[in-house]
Input
Amino acid sequence: MTFGETETAPLLSAPRVRRATNRRLTLGLVVFSAVVLVAVVVAGLAVGGAANQTDFAAKMLAPSLAHPFGTDWMGRDMFLRTLAGLSTSVLVGLGAAVASSLIALVLAAGAALGPRWMDAAVSWLIDLMMGIPHIVLLILISYALGKGFWGVTIGVALTHWPSLTRVLRAEILQCRASGFVAAARQLGASRLAIAWRHMVPFVLPQFLVGLVLLFPHAILHEAAITFLGFGLPPEMPAIGVILSEAMGYLSAGAWWLAVFPGVALVLTVMLFDGVGSGLRRLLDPQSAQE
Output
């Protein structure tokens, strides 16, 4: 080995080490965020009954060691209610995001692989949906379906697919025009085989990232319409319900009724955003090095 080879070898290996370190850190953040979110959901489901227990002898207590988030006007522990509310919001967001992403995938595949009239129809529908404010359309759908858990979930699912549909349509068109798909056609592969072996792996990363990034929007919009009274019922512990009820007591100095649930909602949304951004870095070789 010459002197020049011994000097350049460490320089060539340094970028590889840096890339491996970045990917490990990103993967660690994604796993940590996912574990925290699962723990919040499980804890919220476990304390669902205790979150509704009332104790009028301990009502309107400020945060303390016994009640870290204080108590409300019925003596309910706000820490337990916040956990239960986050669990409900995450479950609504999960159902809505999965349904919305599947709608986006079906419409994108139909627009990219179907006849021209289908592409024009899907494009027109996307423009129509994006021209209407999210919150207005969501309120109308939720109210028409009787509000409640399913009304909110269906409303969020039917209003959050357009952006992901555009992305998936572009990915499918790019895959269809690629050289390896053309080679597969020339080798006699069927449409089903091409779709399963080539298009699904090509579109799957964008689909997963889009699915995860739909969670924050779904959770925030669920909380927004519930806060306005068009979402989940008052007897169901949810962040929107908690914040809506707390508005009547803020003037009395009970700041903890809104601050802690609001901060918990923001942190949950940030965790979902962190998972989505991390997945994007892991699945995109270029952004993994940023």
